Amino acid sequence: MQTVLIVIHLMVVLALVGVVLLQKSEGGGLGMGGGGGFMSSRGTANVLTRTTAILAAVFFATSLALSVLAGYSREPKSILDLGGAPAGAPAQAPAEGQGILDQIKPPGPPQPPVSR
Q: What pLDDT, in 10s, does the model give residues 55-95?
């Protein structure tokens, strides 16, 4: 499902880039040619503006859908579960009143700070 949505999202992105590049700039563009009808300056601008708005809405919707789908497969993980002990070592529960920082202190008396 996610792969299909990514492919659709990429096609919408390419179409959106193409439509934006086709739009009339300050100096001209598709609307430079004369004549009337469907591809006149005003008609082209209306079609491209509507197409850009529709593609932008589809891009927004696919972006939201991809973020929701990515959130479903995510599980909460703790950095404490990653461990620091070897894989074969048995897990030790901290003593009452000790936290994780107390466990990683080296045994023995505290070392005095080094002065310079």
A: 999 999 999 999 999 888 777 777 777 665 555 566 666 56
pTM over cut 0.85: no
**Does some domain include residue 56?**
yes
Q: Whole-number mean pLDDT of the chain?
A: 76
Give, in order, the Cα–Cα distances in Å from 64 to each of 2, 9, 59, 100, 109.
Answer: 12, 11, 9, 38, 55
Cβ neighbors of 56 (< 8 A, separation 6 or more) are: 16
Element (H, E) at 35: none
Residues comprising the chain, all counted? 116
> Measured between alpha carbons, how far is 110 from 5 in angstroms, rounded to an integer?
58
Tell me, yes or no, whether 64 lies in a domain: yes
> Domain range for residue 62?
1-9+45-74
